[in-house]
Amino acid sequence: MIDPQGQANKWIKNMEKANNLHVVKLSDADFVRTLENCIQFGTPVLMENLGEELDPLLEPLLLKQTFKQGGSMRIRLGDSTIEYSQDFKFYMTTKLRNPHYLPETSVKVNLLNFMITPEGLQDQLLGIVVARERPELEEEKNTLILQGAENKRQLKEIEDKILEGLSLSEGNILEDETAIKVLSSSKVLSNEISEKQAIAEETGKKIDQACRGYTPITVHFSIVLLHSRLGQY
Known about the structure:
Blueprint lengths: L6 H9 L6 E4 L5 H11 L3 E4 L10 H4 L3 E4 L2 E6 L2 E4 L6 E3 L10 H4 L11 H16 L1 H34 L8 H35 L3 H16 L3
Parallel strand pairs: 1-2, 2-6
Antiparallel strand pairs: 3-4, 4-5
């Protein structure tokens, strides 16, 4: 996680506090021993202050090079072979603002950018303001998001069903009654879902328009917060 403002660190520490999170740095003399213990017992680890190069010792861990031995999952770190718990979680953060990681590093991890931009901060503040001032809008917007995801899921199922019907049909599809029924029912259902989706999108636009009425407030406070943050560096 690219985390110059420390947001990711704070989020991880809060999220994993109850799970006995261990925080380490590559510069720590005992970081390997801590890492090995946490891997075995399924305890989460946060590695802070990473640079642009990772310790080669982490390679098997990032590639999840686990193997079965004696009925249990194991992994080899350096000269040690240790038991690997499926509950283990590994987080890494860097304070670098614009790190350049090699492609071979990027494919081994999920890279998240927590760098605050004015636009991103405004979006966050807008969500907070709307949730406080117009909670019904925020709730309706979240409902629409869920409905949209469900509509897309149903449309995907219909597409799969049509493709399955076409693949199973033998000869001229126009003479296959089963295939024709599948296509007809799918078309009706697809039209109904598309109509619902269109209504949802129109409603979403109205909600967004209402939310944008609070934009001047969020712009003002984002500028105040950014200036305040910059003053800390």
